[in-house]
Amino acid sequence: MATSSAASVDMEDIQTVDLMSELLRRMKCASKPDKRLVFIGPPGSGKGTQSPVIKDEFCLCHLSTGDMLRAAVAAKTPLGVKAKEAMDKGELVSDDLVVGIMDEAMNRPKCQKGFILDGFPRTVTQAEKLDEMLNRRGAQIDKVLNFAIDDSVLEERITGRWIHPSSGRSYHTKFAPPKVPGVDDLTGEPLIQRKDDNADVLRSRLDAFHKQTQPVCFLIVHELEDYQRI
């Protein structure tokens, strides 16, 4: 009974306009087809910019490995403690840790219509584990979007990038500045710049991407008929 009472109080605290907006969103989403997408590309290629747009259009959940790991680091969870050292150096976190959080995330109610995998799988081992996870669910990837971009243009993109943490909206001081510097356009909340968005860490991340993640793209695409290059 205590649980029901607490849930009732929480509902009463929500503004009517917010409840109606959520109801309308769910009604719209009911008619959307299920989609399971993989976004592959180097850091700064545009995955984080496009993901919120596509997520809202098709009622998908956006599963960003980087965002999940950063949240774990900020919360100082056991996973976060293990991941922090590797992330600070621009190295990849172990496959077992990443696979575990992604498998758990796919079970969330908000992922019922499907998902966008952003930054996962990053290694061939992770791709094989993804196949296992999807097979258990009787599902498969619908499309792989490859964000192909030359390394030479990425440094300017990365070092000028600012993020709204709760929504994932991204801005750029030159290419897509917010209306008010340092502030999210929609909420007025402060933007942040990730600690790993600097030139030194970028070079390390690009090296890891070319060695470990590019082969994943060809591995997944080989199994799909639907493949789109962006």
Automatic annotation (TrEMBL):
Monomer. Signal peptide: none annotated. It catalyses: AMP + ATP = 2 ADP. Its EC number is 2.7.4.3. Catalyzes the reversible transfer of the terminal phosphate group between ATP and AMP. Plays an important role in cellular energy homeostasis and in adenine nucleotide metabolism. The lineage of its organism: Eukaryota, Viridiplantae, Streptophyta, Embryophyta, Tracheophyta. One of its GO terms (molecular function) is AMP kinase activity. InterPro entries: Adenyl_kin_sub (IPR006259), Adenylat/UMP-CMP_kin (IPR000850), Adenylat_kinase_CS (IPR033690), Adenylate_kinase_lid-dom (IPR007862), P-loop_NTPase (IPR027417). This is adenylate kinase. Belongs to the adenylate kinase family. It is an enzyme of class 2 (transferase). Pfam families: ADK, ADK_lid. Transmembrane segments: none annotated.
